[in-house]
Amino acid sequence: MMKSLNKTHILVLVGLLVVLGLVYLVGYHYLIKPQKSEAENLHNQVSMFENQVARNADDNKEEATGDSEAIAQLIPNRLAIDSLLREIHGLANSSNVQIDYIGSATGNGEGADETTEETSEVQEATYSLDVTGESLKDVNQFLDAMLEGERLITIETLNVDEDGESFFASISFSTYYAE
């Protein structure tokens, strides 16, 4: 049993379709469209951050390569105790400190100076050094000069004493060389 649709039913149905269409358009305009534009903005931001991270990663690789090359230049190809002694003596003269003692911390002789690690090509030689300076500033200047010198030097221990007008520093340090 099918009832026939009269004019009022058709107008109500068309009106209902128009209202639904308007609700859809208003909903799209106020809800969906802002969400789509926000999603596009977020996508653009993510792309921008990804590009920035990629550039920073490339910069860090170049910086790390430059750092490793700079460190490699600070490590001589042989132990060269004579050049180390000349360098330390020159640093002491320029810093107004006097070297009281310098010797190997691991034993006597050139062969005993090296602490060998089997897994690495870089060898380590450890020394002890006693210096006297007229002021703490002179001792600090000597230590800074050691660290900024031509060789890679690691200060292992440092003891500073004051005796009246003089400052005494006992330093244990390591140098490195490639073999």
Structural class, by secondary structure, is alpha+beta
Share of residues in helices = 40-55%
Report the uncertain regions: 107-119
Q: Cα-atom Rg, whole angstroms?
A: 38 Å
Which features does this protein show?
179 residues; alpha+beta; five-stranded antiparallel beta sheet; 5 strands
Give structural notes:
Helix 2 runs antiparallel to helix 3 (136-147). The protein contains 3 helices and 5 strands, in the order ααβββαββ. Strands 1, 2, 3, 4 and 5 form a 5-stranded antiparallel beta sheet that branches. The model is unreliable at 107-119 (pLDDT under 50). It has 179 residues and is of the alpha+beta class.
Topology readout:
Elements: H1 7-74, H2 81-95, E1 97-104, E2 114-115, E3 122-133, H3 136-147, E4 153-163, E5 166-178
Brief characterization of the structure:
The chain has 179 residues and is an alpha+beta fold.
